[in-house]
Every structure is written in structure tokens, then in C-alpha cells.
Amino acid sequence: MLKSKTFVKKTRKGGVLKVVREHYLRDDIWCGSAACGGCPQDRPVLEAEPEIDSTLCGFPHYLIPDTNVVLHQMDVLADSAIRNVIILQTVQQEVRHRSGTTYQRLRDQSNNADKHFYVFTNEHHRETYTEREQGESSNDYNDRVIRVATRWYNKHLQENRKDGDTPKVKVVLLTNDRENREKAQKEGLLAYTVHQYVKALKGNPELVDRLAQVDMGESTDSDIKNEATGRVLFPEHLPLSQLQTGIKSGRYLQGSFMASRENYLEANVLVHGDDSRSIFIQGHAHLNRAVNEDVVAIEMLPEDQWKCPSSMVLQDKDGDEETSEPDLGSPKGRSNAIPSGRVVGVIKRNWRPYCGVLQPSGIKEATRHLFMPAERKIPKIRIETRQAESLQGQRIVVSIDGWPRNSRYPKGHFVRKLGEVGDKDTENEVLLLEHDVPHQPFSQAVLNCLPSTPWGITKEDLACREDLRDIPICSVDPPGCTDIDDALHYVEKPNGNIEVGVHIADVTHFIRPNTALDQEAANRGNTVYLCDKRIDMVPELLSSNICSLRGKEERFAFSCIWEMTKDADIVSTRFCKSVICSKAALTYAEAQMMIDDKNRNDPVTVGLRGLNALAKILKKRRIDAGALTLASIEVRFHVDSETHDPIDLETKELRETNSMVEEFMLLANISVAKKILSDFPSCAMLRRHPQPPPSNYDILIKAGKSKGVDIETDTSKALAVSLDQATIPGHPYFNTLLRIISTRCMMQALYFCSGTLPESDYFHYGLATPIYTHFTSPIRRYSDIIVHRLLAVCINADKSYPDLLDKYKSQALCNNLNFRHKMAQYAGRASVELHTQLFFKNKVTEEEGFVLFVRKNAVQVLIPKFGFEGTIFLKSQDGRGEDSPFVFNEEESSQTAGEVKLRMFDRVVVQITVETSHIQHQKLRIRLVKPQVPGFTVPPVDTSNSAEPPVKKVKT
């Protein structure tokens, strides 16, 4: 059956356009129920006799949730107790439009055969389709459509029972919209709120805790008062229409809200469309219920109300509804006040499930509790649960439902339990969830895309590739590396020049566009490296076997080959698909030993020496051009083979071979970037590194001046020269500390599509190169897969496809890759923190450290040997510190106690222990040993009379 609707609309040029819309209706869309004898369906999804024990609905029934129920109560719908659910097409489409995450979760439930979720295309069924009435709002129309489908299902199932013995199956509408529910009940339908339905279920009391407490959005009534104080705690958020108008006129700015980890009363808003602009927000009222990574609208404060960031380290330890806050600094009266603003509305909430623990309530048998997220940037969340006793000492997951103006904390609900606090597997799961790292096993659809084994190279493969198997190619990687994606070669040519090759695993031969494997790799974005495990971007068959360039095994590669002079000047560059056979898979240490062994002159060793000599020339050129050499401390853990607990750790040692490999990978990436940009000027995937705004360097300049060193930051070249010259006699670690601080001044490097930015923005500041991309690690970075595909099209080795040449889709992919890359970095650091805590458990260790930052109530100390930072609180968190011997001098950034003065870069000796009493988690605690301050410092550890063995010396 065909329904058509004709209307006219006015065009921009004033013309009139006749529009005809056709809508096809069908009679062969089945109900999906096994209890139905009227629909000739092969595999019904809904059970014939749905069983659920309920005091409200004590009869066989199916559920039809409305759109808001799906959007807000997915944690309930996803529970194993909820089965036999009919998802209407109307609901599914609206959910897809409003929340991609919820839509994906809904699809997962529909694909789970045990859940019996059936998607009914009601808008194309002749008896459930209904047209929108004149003057009817979109919301009222959708509600009516859902009621029509519910009524049809009840009638259809009653009229088409399979036989007389089959029990009558009814359909229950779940809606928290009072008007919709009342209309449904007047029409004779069974309609309940989700809360009524869930609370009536028997045998599932924990499901009540998963109910979202707010469905219809947060209240904006101006008369809402705080229960305890009778005051409104936060300003009202402006409506979206007013925000959009204000942003368009320039009155408001739109940006991403980034909460501070060091002070819960401070944040910055990164203004969209301006990489260098950041607006400072301070205080409860000005933060106005924004949560980290929300997209917000802000209003600039008058210049005389601008604030300066507090020098305090402040963590929220309150549990009441008061919003009293310590003195964080006066308004602009000092030269270091920065542009400040206040949040006037939230444009998009980027809430997700959060991991953490319950804070015990002081009231016995209380049901209202505070949840403490593991991520310090997230505020505490108030939840209701009847399982508080069993959840003590457990990691749990909680979702935010809303943040009313009368509550200091957002309100949320319990989702699930993860495991015991401190358990390594549980903590690993927490850090993966907190950093949104996809880590579920690969689906069968993905595994079906893999090549069959045993795999081998055929004559057909050799016919379309260069055969480089006889060239002395080798790989150089960290110890234990199994996903080897790059190898090198060096051969002297008869004309006196050198042939140098970088050979990269040809992953795109196995990962074809738009397959399940390709989509999964694109979603994961990159491989994530934790201290004790690796979360692969692609299945292990590819990452550690068929694509890995293992020694003495034939593999497919994508090769970048240069002809160079002995002075490392490039004569020519070519790219080709190839077949290689690596002669050796070496570690950095093994390669260095081969280079240093004068008695070795085999082709691989000679090649390594040649590569090393060329790399030194290339590196000098980069540095002369202004490339930065920054610093960070990396540690490697040695784990027990059975328990997988850390038993030793060492600081990673950098050798010449590390630099050798890095130089040729950089050169390959630059060469490929030039090639793909020349052939695809509007859709090349490149990587840029923006120059930091001058204000980013304030802390570095101040740090240098504290020791009488001037740091120039006008250009990367000036900064590089300043850092090279920044030395202090008798303080060899000073330069490294300055470079560590410099690293923190940098902007994040980003993937981007060339057609979305002007060429002047392509520059990579850190590498001082006008163009750059990632080509050399396709096993562990999806960006490199896209670059391989572009380069293959450039040399006619593969065909293009539409998405590859669509700059808007390419930029959307870049946005995901930037997010995944950032989260992988954070997850790796969190894993180091976790393993550091495990390593120091039951130990008391003393070690040398350096003061990195001086705060109003604390000093932050870097312990180089172990590669971590810790905070020594000198005063209480409100900064008053009447009982503290330390006095803070903001002008010279120092803390003084008697004759002891602590300043940036000062050497200290600290005592490191693991504090197990903290409610949130075990954490490292550092205390001052030297310089000694009577009544404050702790005495050195005396192990001479202890039964405990002395602390093991750690390798560096």
C-alpha cells in the first residue's frame, strides 16, 4: 500500500517547489511473537510464554518502552531479568538521533538471543502507521504512535493465539511521562512507570538501585531550595535557544569544560575553533554544575573580576550540601590574573559510567550515599542503594542522571559491581573503563575476516610485489616486542651513494575497507600498552604473527626506499609493495652491542653502523632546524611469571640505536606525508602539532628565572637553544627537570584531514617540520592504515573507495583517533601508577627527589629513580595551616620553615609508603625526610635492628 503526501515550500530564491513524499505500508511485517498463530514467521524472537515474577504484572507479558525510558533506563533494560521487549521503530530512530551510545547498547540487546528484544517496524505496518495531526507537537505525535502500536499488539495477540492452551500474553507500556501514561490508561492499555514496574519485580531487589532518578531533565524552577540551608546553590542554566543566539552574537563562548585534577574548584574551558584560547573558571557558582568534558556556554567576566589560578592543591573531602569554599585568591589586583568566565549553560553533556567506591554514610541503614569517582576531575555523585553494606570495599560503576540546582553533588544510580578495591584485575578493569578503552574480545564477525592458517606467500603475491628477500633487512625493537611493524636496511650502491629502506608491515593487505575487522580497528583507534598486558587494535593472528616482521620469516611490507649521499642528502625516494625476509629481530641493546663490536662485519652489522652514522647527521639537522628534545621519565616493570605482580623496576635506558630507529621512522613519515598531500591535497590524513600560546610557557620561564636562567620561547629554535644552554654547575639533573616542565607546556599533537585546515596550520612544532604524518606503525595505529591506503592509491598498488576521499568523514575519523590516542596515553600512565603502588606495597623506601612545583599548601616532588610525582602536604587543604611550621612566599615561590627553605629544583630526601587507609584506593604517600624540619619531617628508616630485609636497590 502506498500513501503519498503533497505540499509546497518556498525556495531561497523566492520560487515555489512542489514536494511529494511517498510512504510504503505493508501487510507482511510480523509481530515477532512465538505465541502468535497468525503471522507465518520462521524464527519468532519473543517467547510464547514469557515468565517474570511480579506483584504488579503477574501474567505473561511483553514490554514496550517509550523513547525516554530507553534513553534513561538502559542500565535496567540491559539487566538479564528484563526480557521479551518490543522496540518500536519510532523509538529506535529517536534514540539513534539523540544518543549514539545508547543506540549502540540497544542494538547489542537486540542482537543478544537470550534477551528476546524484537524491533518492530511500526511505521511501515499498515495497521500501526498513523499520520501526524495538524497542530500536534512532535513529542505528542510520537507518544500517540507508541500507544497505537501497543493497542494493536494487544488486539493482535488476543485474536491470533496459537491454540487454546496458550496463555494470553498482554503488552505493558512503560513510560514515565504522566500525560502519556494517563492517556494510555484511558484507552484501556496497561501502562506503568519504570519505577513502578521494577519495584514490583520479585527476586531482583538490586535492580531498583539501577533506576535512573531523573528522566525528564534537571529542574530549572527558580524557587528550588537546598534542603539543609533553604538556599538555591547554583544559578539557573539558560535554555538552549538562548545559548545558541548568544553564541551567534558573540555574547557567549562555546567550549569544552576541562576540570582541574589539582583543585576541584577550578577548571578551564577550551574555546571551540581557537586552539590557543582557554578561559579560566573558578568557584562553585561559576563552575555551575559542569562536569569534565561537557560542552558548555560561558560568559566572560569583566576584567576587574578576572582571577588567577590558586596555588593550592585542593581535593573535595566534604560530604554535606554546603558550598563554602576556602579563599582561592582575590580578584584582579595582581599581574597574573587571567581571562576568566562563568558557565551559563550546558550545550551537551558528555557523561559516561564512572568507576569508584562508596563513601560510608554516618547514618545506620541509610540508603542515600556519596559515590567517590576514581577520576579526581569528576565530582562525587549522590546515589540511593540498599546494598551499601555489601558494596563496601568494592569497585562499582555509577552513572549520573542529573544535577539539580538544590544539590551540591549530581544525582545518579548504581550500575554494577567490578570487584574488590586493590585487586589487580579489578584495578586494570577500572583504568580501562575510566579511559574508555575498548577491550572486549573480538567478535566472531571480526574473526571471520582473518586469513586462514597456515598462511603463506603465493606466486600470485610475488608477481605484484618487489622481491626484497635477499636484502640484509633487520628490525630493532624493545625487548619482548611481538608486534614488530618496522624494519630497516642499508646497502652501498656502485655509484658511491647509499640505499636506505624502511619496511613497514603491510597490514592493509589483510584489513580491507568497511569490513567488520576494519570497523573494529577504526573504533579502537590504537593498541593500548599497559604494564602487564596489551590491548590489541587488531586480533593477535595479525598483530603478533602474520603482520609482525619476525626474524627469518617472509612477510608482506610497504617499503619506503631512498637513495642518499653519505652526507644523508636524499637523491631520490620511491615507494613499493614488497616481500621481505628480516635477517634478524634485534632489541635495542643487541643492536648496540653489534655496532660496538669491532670484530663483527657481517652485512646486518655493517648496515646498522651505516644507519647509525646517517641517523646522527639527520638528527643534527632536525635540531638545527629547531626540533625540540624534551624529556619524560619512563620505567619498565619486571613481573613475576606466576602472579604477574611487579617484583622489580628500572628506568628505561636510551641508546644510540633508539635514536637511530627514531630518525628513519621520522624521515619515512615526512616523505610519505609529502607524497600523499601532493596526490590528495584535500583528503590526506596528516598530523600537526600546534605552537603553544605564550601563556603556556609562564611556568617554564618562572622556573628558569628561579635559578637565574632565561628561557626564550618565541620559536621552537629559540626554546631548543635555551634548553641546551640551561645548566647549573653541581646540579646535573636541572636541565632534565626543565625539559620535563617544557613537555607539560606543549599542546597535544593532532590528526587532521588536509582539506579542513589552511596549509599554514599543518606545521609540526615539536619536530620543526612543515608536514608530517604517521605511516610506520599500522599494526598499532589506525591512522597509519589510512595513510597506507592513500599511499597505495598514489602508486597504483590499490583502488580508492568513497570514504577515503571524503574529507568530512576523514575528519570525523581523525577526531576519534585523537580521542583514542589521548586515552591510550592516560591509560598507560595509570597502569604505571597502579604497578608502582603494587611494587611499594609493604615497603618503606627512602629516595632522592626534586621539588618540581611549590604550592600554597604543598610541594610536588619528582622521584626520578621511580619515575613518578608525589605531593607532600605542608598545611591543611584550606591553606590556613595554623599548626604548620611552613610559610608560603608566592613572589619567590618558596615554603620556609625556620632555616629551611624549599624552592623549585631543590634536592630532598623523601620516604615512600603505600597508604591503605584511603577510602578511594591505595595510594603512594611521600613524606619529607631531609632537609629536617623539627615536628614535621619523619626520621630516616633504621633497618639495622629490623626483622624486615632492607629495601632492594632499584636499577637505573
Describe this entry's structure for a reader.
The protein has 956 residues and is α+β, with helices and mostly antiparallel strands. Among the domains are: 2-202, 5'-nuclease (Rossmann fold, 3-Layer(aba) Sandwich); 240-319 and 336-348, OB fold (Dihydrolipoamide Acetyltransferase, E2P), CATH 2.40.50; 354-421, OB fold (Dihydrolipoamide Acetyltransferase, E2P), CATH 2.40.50.700; 458-621 and 635-662 and 785-805, no CATH class; 841-930, OB fold (Dihydrolipoamide Acetyltransferase, E2P) (Beta Barrel), CATH 2.40.50. Helices cover 27% and strands 24% of the residues. It contains 23 helices and 38 strands. It has a 5-stranded antiparallel sheet. Strands 13-14-15-17-16 form a 5-stranded mixed beta barrel. Helix 19 (698-705) runs antiparallel to helix 21. It is globular. Mean pLDDT is 87; it is low at 215-229 and 945-956.
From the structure above, extract its key features.
956 residues; OB fold (Dihydrolipoamide Acetyltransferase, E2P); five-stranded antiparallel beta sheet; five-stranded mixed β-barrel; Rossmann fold; globular; alpha+beta
